[in-house]
Specification:
The protein has a ten-stranded antiparallel beta sheet with strand order 1-3-4-5-2-7-10-9-8-6. The protein is built from seven helices and ten strands. By secondary structure, it is of the alpha+beta class. Strand 8 and strand 9 form a beta hairpin.
Length: 283
């Protein structure tokens, strides 16, 4: 196992099989707030089922978990900083795919600061790549290993100062963490009050990827007319946590044909997903 260095970029992990069923995709839809009234096609096999595009993060977590096989990191000081999903075609409700993943970035932000490490996974069937994900982790205090600092992200995908073209709000529920964790993200921080207090928080809060799913629903309905075939990509940086019962308010600025910038805030205006963007197929 290696220490942090830019030489890790391009490190490939062994291919792995990935499978899911419609039960998995429907459970995920419940976990990110889908409602039977307006989104029955994502929750009921009698109307599909169709698959929410951000379901891709669930198998994508397996790619992210590979980091520990290549480099020794202090798990207690890792933050999931950014996430992206790119679809080549709509996700099927049943799938048997092959995951190929590699370390796509390693940056040194300086002594006493963070190191940044990203893992990209590509998920393929016999016809080629179905989708890819990139998960970026911030390793707090791990900077100063002598690597390149990487490109500045300051100003990248910043929310415009003008009024958003669309604002879509969804209310989260007290049971959101209990539901979402059943999709394969069982971190105790998001359900166990005692664990949350030990970690320095007053109570459990939502998974960042659950917030990502709420924003993905807003993109799907606001820009794609609810049609997963029109959804291409979404990416963003986790800026703050969402408490159970908060609203996730997605602000959308359409910047060109099939392109938009995004920002998600709570009902109080606190930013929870920043520097976000989406691409889609216009009608």
């Amino acid at each position: 196992m290696k220490g942090l260095s830019n030489e890790l970029i391009g490190h490939e992990f062994d291919p792995r099989p990935v499978r899911w069923t419609s039960k998995d995709t429907m459970l995920y839809a419940l976990g990110v707030g889908a409602k039977p009234g307006a989104e029955l096609e994502f929750l009921y096999e009698g109307h599909g089922p169709q698959v929410l595009p951000t379901f891709a993060v669930i198998p994508g977590m397996r790619a992210m978990a590979n980091i520990g096989k290549a480099v020794e990191l202090d798990v207690a000081r890792l933050l999931h900083g950014e996430q992206s999903v790119h679809l080549q075609r709509p996700l099927p409700p049943e799938a048997e795919l092959t995951m190929r993943s590699h370390i796509s970035e390693v940056w040194d932000k300086g002594e006493g600061k963070a190191a940044v490490i990203g893992v990209t996974g590509e998920f393929s069937d016999a016809d080629g790549i179905v989708f890819s994900t990139t998960s970026t982790l911030f390793c707090i205090g791990a900077g100063g290993f002598g690597g390149e600092s990487g490109p500045s992200t300051r100003g990248v995908n910043q929310a415009p100062e003008r009024t958003p073209d669309q604002v879509i709000s969804y209310v989260t529920q007290e049971e959101q963490g209990a539901l979402y964790r059943l999709s394969g993200d069982p971190v105790a921080l998001h359900i166990d009050p005692e664990f949350a207090r030990m970690a320095g928080y007053d109570k459990p809060f939502m998974h960042g990827l659950c917030t990502f799913g709420f924003v993905g629903r807003a993109v799907l309905h606001g820009l794609c007319g609810g049609d997963p075939k029109r959804f291409i990509s979404i990416a963003g940086r986790f800026a703050d946590r969402v408490e159970f019962g908060d609203e996730v308010v997605t602000r959308i600025w359409e910047t060109g044909p099939g392109e938009a910038l995004l920002e998600a805030v709570t009902q109080t205006g606190r930013v929870v997903l920043s520097q976000a963007r989406a691409t889609y197929r216009p009608e």
